[in-house]
Amino acid sequence: MKKYVIVGGVAGGMSAATRLRRLDNDAQIIVIEKSGFVSYANCGLPYYIGGVIQNERDLLLQTPESLNKRFNLDVRVNSEVIEILPTEKKVRVKSLSTNEILELEYDKLILSPGATPIVPSVEGISRAMTLRTVEDTKKIFNAVSEKPKSAVVIGGGFIGVEMAENLVHRGIKTALIEASDQVLAPLDPEMALLVANEISKNGVELHLGTSAVSVGSENVTLANGEVLPAELIILAIGVRPDTSLAKTAELTIGSRGGISVDENNLTSDKNIYALGDAVEKRDELDESATLVPLANIANRHGRVIADHINGRKTRNVNTIGTAIVKVFDLAVAVTGWNEKRLKAAGINHRAIHTHPGSHAGYYPGAETLALKLLINPENGEIYGAQGVGKDGIDKRIDVIATAIRGGISAPELADLELAYAPPFGSAKDPVNMLGYISENIVSGLTKTAQWHEIDRYRDSGYALLDVRTPGECSRGMIPGFINIPVDELRARHEEIGNKKVLVSCQVGQRAHTATMLLKGLGYEAVNLDGGYHLWSNSPAKLKIDAAKVEKEQVNV
Fold it and tell me: Is the pTM here over 0.90, yes or no?
């Protein structure tokens, strides 16, 4: 009889355990879990704290008893593996209830220890609470139930913004601190700004570009000197792989600090596997080591390990980092690389921004989406995508993630036959439209510029043309642009006075029509990607607004 020991439950560990049982009815399978809960929906924990999920039992998926009854698993909670003895193929297990220590033999060992919250070296930080386990959740829930008047969330990542939203939902005045200049690091700045606006609109006091330097009994002091009231403090600046146990077995630790594994999640020891947040993954684009702490990846790892142990064929799949988060009324989703990373790596790319409706505009309830696609302008390879909006973001990013996995190029997105009816989409789905635009760029039919390149085009001698209606322009224009409506352009194009012209409209669609018209008239015309709408929600607009405020303060 084979004997398998699994260290850690939740997503990856339990996926491995149950798949092993389905493939081998006779094996002895022992799961060691440090906490008191072995199978729970950890992604739902913030929503229980916020009262959105009202029954704690809804988060507890399985118990040791239910897992034993259905799968004949030996699940031991409140137990900790304190050492691996690889040459003896044993682990030492400590009962956290009795402090008794025993040794367990194994044929194969599976490590699923997860990740641990990063805690910075800040005075008084021990008062802050982290969210990782059910026990953490209960502690925070009890603190929230005391009805604190103020809360500070340190960290503007996925967990941080979820916690800020749920604390507001509980009626607590909440501030969110993020050391970088934006929330949600996987987004590019112009997309993150949409999220920041949503966070502020819903009453969260947002502090970007500063960090906590000390924590007092009732407040948090920031690096910029501000002092924030904080009866409750949540720390959510990120996690790091828990490799403490792996190091006792002298397993290889990778360059990113996670356990190094091969395509079958086998470690440097042929009898020890590792999975989930504790291990390094391989990036789809450049094969580099990466850390992606996502539940769906951990679940897949568990299945791969069980299949490999039982001699089944597995697939080598790298990660593209597809993720989504709810931020008040917005859905925010990403897949693949962002533009910041592409620039840092020196990879030639082109960005495409669109602002389509979530479904047919004539059907009630359509909402404007913000989509960004990053492509190779030479061959149309899709590097990544981002989406922000109220409805339909998930399925668009999922389609693009599937395209990346399947090797579908950006122009080929135009060929996808997607489900359409007016309540759900458009005859030209937003994903199809990204394909059409990509095809124009890759084929060389059109050239686009980005919101942060306007000054460069101006300095290069380009005229700046806005082809919206005068009414639209009266509500705001990019400085330096002149207005000739697209419907009057054929008759008035000579007013441009320059054969090189950068063309803008509201979102880029009319500007495309204008650039094609001007191109036919002998102009070198470039379309401002995303148009005025993108620019007005970008850091470039924020910089201009800040300069105006500073000038007004000087003149007072």
Answer: yes
